[in-house]
Structure formats: C-alpha cells, structure tokens
C-alpha cells in the first residue's frame, strides 16, 4: 500500500513539542481543534483533509492523564472516521506505565488497559520514549518503537568536565546507569534504597566510590522527587563534590518542585517529554532538553519506511 502524505498532529498535552518536531522536519502542524463543552466533554474537530494520510499524533499521557488519554482516543476516532491512511501515536511519556503488573491479588494491570484503549481507538503503531517497564511493548499487537533519550542527555552531560560517577538510585536502574557510565567513561555507583510506602523511599547506603566526584543521579522519571532528593543527601554524606539529577520524564507531582529547589543538587536535567508547568519553570535548578530531534528522526524513518533501529542506543 502506498504511504500517504506526512501529517503531524497534536492534542493539548504538549503542542510545543509537536511544533518543534515540525520545525525539525520542515513541515506544518496539521490543525486539530481540541476543546471542551460546558459539561466537560471533549470536543475534537480536524481542520484539514487527512484521507489516506500518514498521520503522527503527538500526545504524551501526562497530567491530567485521564483527560489527555481520552482526548487522544477521541482524536484517533475522528481520524479513523476521516479515512486516514495510517496513524502512529507518538506518546513520549506513557501514563500508567508503573502499573505494569499485579502487585496485589485484586489489582489491575492498567498499563495493559491503556494499550487496549489505544489499539481499539485505531493506532497502527506506537512511538514512545524510555518506557518505565520495557515489557509494556508486549501489551500491543502492533509495532512499538521505544526510543531512548540517552543521546540528548549524554550530549549535555559531556559538557561537564568534572570527574563523573553515574549513580543508580535503586537496583532496578543499574543497567541504564551502566550504559551511561560506559559512554561517558565514568564510574558507577548504586544506592541501596528501602521503600516503606508508595511514593516514599529512604536512601540508605552507597555502593561504589563517589568521594570527591560529581555524582550524576540517573532515573527514568522524577515524580514526587522523594527518592532522588534522598539520593543526593546520602551521596553528599559519602563525600560527593557535586550532585546533578538526570531523568527523562519530569512528572513533578505533589511537593516535587519545592523538594528539588531545596535539595543538594546543583542542576536537575530533564527532557520535554512532559511540558514543564509554570510552577516547575520557576525552579532555578531545572533544565529541560528537547526530544524533537530524536522524535523527528523516528517519524521521518517510519514515514519513509527506513530503519528505526539506528536510533536505538
């Protein structure tokens, strides 16, 4: 089947990122009206012909996650009813990714439910960035491209001339931290963490040498910031010269911004997979890097039927 014209669309979750992707690709953003009726129901109207087109819908399912997820499903339904050729959902941040397995006898697997929503709504392919749990790719019976923010984050970290050590804030992130350490020629350390309750964690011991070094604490997301702030405290206690936090997804819920502002970190580096809200933008330590180039390359390669695996690092 011949591939239709490339069109980039967005909902209300992160239109700035969609515009940056269009600038990277040298194309115009296809107009899509997303609004709400007086009773709160979502209104969607696509502003131009998409018949047979190859559409890429940019919509991270960030807060308010339920609204943005529903909005995306409604846009997908509108596209399907407008005889679109192919739809790729570009979801830089996949909401509900932490609910990827049963943790109690009668608990849901919400990440799988979200996959079912998107599939039924009509996507043909999913592009996402740094999934919290890689097995979520298997929740879809269609192609899933899980890209990595590493090239963007590594380019920034390479500007730091200090003696670096990459720190994983828990055992689960060791593989990611080791990959960064290898590319930067840096040391590796791990924090032994004991979690007492959801969204609460207590950092205990540092495994590895951090004394006199700049510690880069690496995670896939920063939510309430309890874990990553506690990590900086224990690193400083163990002699780290400086601490920099580095994460792909800036969820920043609850007291996160205040915690980060008052933390031991000199800098918090994130990406724009989730737009930085007005409150977070006031944080003097926060620096947001754009994923537009990585997502733009992925979109170009998918549209032209070129290899996407060249982007996996």
Automatic annotation (TrEMBL):
Role according to the record: Involved in the biosynthesis of the central metabolite phospho-alpha-D-ribosyl-1-pyrophosphate (PRPP) via the transfer of pyrophosphoryl group from ATP to 1-hydroxyl of ribose-5-phosphate (Rib-5-P).
SMART domains according to UniProt: Pribosyltran_N (SM01400)
Of which family is this protein a member?
A: Belongs to the ribose-phosphate pyrophosphokinase family. Class I subfamily.
Residues binding ATP, per UniProt: 39-41, 98-99
Which pathway or pathways does this protein act in?
Metabolic intermediate biosynthesis; 5-phospho-alpha-D-ribose 1-diphosphate biosynthesis; 5-phospho-alpha-D-ribose 1-diphosphate from D-ribose 5-phosphate (route I): step 1/1
Q: Which residues form the Ribose-phosphate pyrophosphokinase N-terminal domain?
A: 6-122
Tell me its cofactors. Mg(2+)
* Residues reported in the UniProt entry to bind Mg(2+): 132, 170
A single BP term in Gene Ontology? 5-phosphoribose 1-diphosphate biosynthetic process
On subunit structure and binding partners, the annotation says:
Homohexamer.
Assigned keywords, A-Z: ATP-binding, Cytoplasm, Kinase, Magnesium, Metal-binding, Nucleotide biosynthesis, Nucleotide-binding, Transferase
Gene that produces this protein: prs
Which of this chain's residues are annotated to bind D-ribose 5-phosphate? 195, 219, 223-227
- Report the cofactor remark: Binds 2 Mg(2+) ions per subunit.
Gene Ontology CC terms: cytoplasm; ribose phosphate diphosphokinase complex
| Substrates-to-products reaction catalysed | D-ribose 5-phosphate + ATP = 5-phospho-alpha-D-ribose 1-diphosphate + AMP + H(+)
EC id? 2.7.6.1
Principal cellular location given in the protein's record: cytoplasm
Active-site residues, record numbering mapped to chain = 193
Q: What sort of enzyme, by top EC class, is this?
A: transferase
Q: Which HAMAP family does this one have?
A: RibP_PPkinase_B
Identify the InterPro entries for this entry.
PRib_PP_synth_CS, Pribosyltran_N, PRTase-like, PRTase_dom, Rib-P_diPkinase, Rib-P_diPkinase_bac
What's the protein called, per UniProt? Ribose-phosphate pyrophosphokinase
Subcellular location per UniProt equals: Cytoplasm
Species this protein is from: Desulfovibrio ferrophilus
